[in-house]
Amino acid sequence: MTGSEPTAQLVEEFSEPGAVAPPWSDVVALLASSEMFWLSTVRRDGRPHVAPLPAMWLDDRLHFCTGAHEQKARNIEANANCVITTGTSAYRSGIDVTVEGTAERITDNATLERLARLWKDKLDWVFEVGDGVFLDTTGTRPAMVFAVRPAKVLAFSKNPYSQTRYVR
After folding, report:
1. Quick check: 70 and 53 in contact, CB under 8 A?
2. Which of 110, 124, 136, 163 is most buried when burial is the number of CB atoms within 10 A of its CB?
3. How many CB atoms lie within 10 A of CB 107?
């Protein structure tokens, strides 16, 4: 989802009477403030894979990092389509958000520097920027950084219950 702010479409079939769509600004605030997300990818044999990880909202995209040897990196290499979710485990309150899109590798060192500052400020994780990768404090474990530009976003509110799709 690039460009202007998306339009919120309340999915009435899955919403209680009187429910209203949360404003896009509330969804962005949740994406920017959440610390944990769940990344869903697909293995080469078609089986799903889900992994919890931190992600950072920057420039209208969610960013995450992973080692090249990890399952999620191998899955993305074969099929870059993925879903990232965040929200709350509460049943009767809060908003859960799913972001569908394609993972794209980020190698631009200027963008990586901005992202490293976000990881430090938000989670106190320290990454150095190497040549197109994050490096841990020992400099021995490079991590690839990916961005997911939302192709589809759904928000699930819980009081009252509703489902909203954001479209451009």
Report:
1. no
2. 163
3. 12
CA nearest to 95, candidates 146, 166, 17, 39: 166
- The whole-number pLDDT of residue 2 equals 52
Which domain CATH number covers 62?
2.30.110.10
Q: What is the pLDDT of residues 96-113, one digit of tens each?
A: 999 999 999 999 999 999
* 139 is a domain residue: no
CA atoms within 13 A on the CB side of 163: 9
Q: Token digits for 19?
A: 């429910």
Determine the pLDDT at residue 152: 95
Query: Based on the number of CB atoms within 10 Å of its own CB, is 147 exposed (0-12), middle (13-18) or buried (19 or more)?
Result: buried
pTM summary value: 0.93
Q: In which domain, by residue range, is 83 found?
A: 7-107+145-167
Q: Using the predicted structure, report yes or no on whether residue 1 has a pLDDT greater than 60.
A: no
